[in-house]
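Chain A, query sequence.
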Amino acid sequence: MLTPAAVSRFASPYLLCSWACRQIPKYFSYEEYHEMTDAELMDGHASGKRFILVAHPHGVFSYTGVCGAIATMSSTNGIGRKLATEVPTAAATVIRTFPLLKDLLGVFGVIDAAGPVLKKRLSRNRGSFVLYVGGIAELFETSAKRECCYLLQRKGFIKLAMRTGADVVPAYFFGNTAVLSVLSTGPLATLSRKLGMSVTLTWGLWGLPIPKPVKLIYTRGRPLGLPHIENPTDADVEEWHNKYVAQLKKLFDDYKHTHPLYADKELQFK
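Chain A, predicted structure.
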């Protein structure tokens, strides 16, 4: 059954602020380091600013994003119970058509990641959203020894932000790719890439698709400081995309020591 999106948004604070959901961050020993705080984000909204919170890496499922949502909704200094409408998450169109999955993700205020939809949202007041730029491709590029962001050819978010006068904020989710292991080759992996969602084999505890209690850390940098250019040139986009890549790399390097699995890892880009 496809529940109307409004129902999921209505249920969002009751579900995510429940006692049961508040145990999820504890299970993952969740931590966060925000150079741009939730309070600053909301102050920006109040003054008419909009932000694209660009999250990396994707993972089979963003448990770090889930923990972050629960934490900010339950905190007195967080975004609060209106997270689903204040800062929804953009997702591939195909995900929003699957029964149950669509309803599960709907509590986070999922919106369509299609360009025209995001442009329309950024043109409105309080139009911020979370965007996993690398998408499902990142899932198959990460290993125990390296982290990889699928970003070098993903420049549309920079152009979109510049055109609409929005800014971009980098976020790195340490542990997001370690909660579940994934079969990265074969026909199911190929199908996952084409669909834009994971339908390949995954496993965690005891060889089952049960999340491992891996430490999860949500790090967030400062806004990039994009200029508002209604018709940016390719050179404009390239310049600011390069600055974004450098800022994301710095964010990773500044905080990787906080996670025992990442101290010796290097962040690569494809």
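The longest strand covers residues 167-174. The CA atoms of residues 204 and 211 lie 5 Å apart.
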